[in-house]
From TrEMBL:
Gene3D superfamilies, A to Z: HUPs (3.40.50.620)
Protein name from the UniProt record: 7-cyano-7-deazaguanine synthase
Residues bound to Zn(2+): C190, C200, C203, C206
Pathway listed: Purine metabolism; 7-cyano-7-deazaguanine biosynthesis
E.C. code: 6.3.4.20
Natural source organism: Erythrobacter rubeus
Domain of life: Bacteria
Lineage: Bacteria, Pseudomonadati, Pseudomonadota, Alphaproteobacteria, Sphingomonadales
Keyword list, A-Z: ATP-binding, Ligase, Metal-binding, Nucleotide-binding, Queuosine biosynthesis, Zinc
Matching HAMAP family: QueC
Cofactor note: Binds 1 zinc ion per subunit.
Cofactor: Zn(2+)
Amino acid sequence: MTPKHAAVVLLSGGLDSMVTAAIAKERGFNVRALSIDYGQRHRLELASAKRIAEKLDLADHVEIELDLRAFGGSALTDSIAVPKSGVDDTIPVTYVPARNLVFLALTTACAEAAGASDVFIGVNALDYSGYPDCRPEFIASFTETARLGTKAGVEGSAFVVHTPLQHMTKADIARECDRLGLDPAWSWSCYDPVPGDIACGLCDSCRLRKKGFAEAGITDSTVYAA
């Protein structure tokens, strides 16, 4: 891996992270992907992350374990029902406490170890579930924290946190998926799959994804139960 061309992408296995990884590769980066097994209810996304890394022929794919079920406090890591009534203006119980803060710190650590100064994350602040750690101000604040809290940063090699989907709608992301020649079914978005490993179609993540593809007029090859 050539350090000056290296980048680390946080690859959850979802649609947004898949499109982000493809964009990073399109921009000429030698992409190393990081996926995190945090005890999530929708563990199928980890298999999707592995599939995406293979399909995109990424330079490397690292998966680490960080079991956030020890903390709980989220429908994704605790015995709390995943809401199926639709997206509203409140932060839903699918929010995992400080998840992107923790994950970006790990991604930055991975990048620093690899000699990379570019980090990619597929956060979005338009069509999303209202998570506070998806907002531009959070990304800006974290970037400064990374500069202050790393050897690379204090020695003058600041990290760049790329958020190529930050101001896109889900329809825009669906169009990018299509433009990049990606199969939506490679990715997994559902928070609460039904028996047979089928997306529920009713959780916030499924609703936002289906809405995006419908508005873009693009077929989502994912099978939904509802």
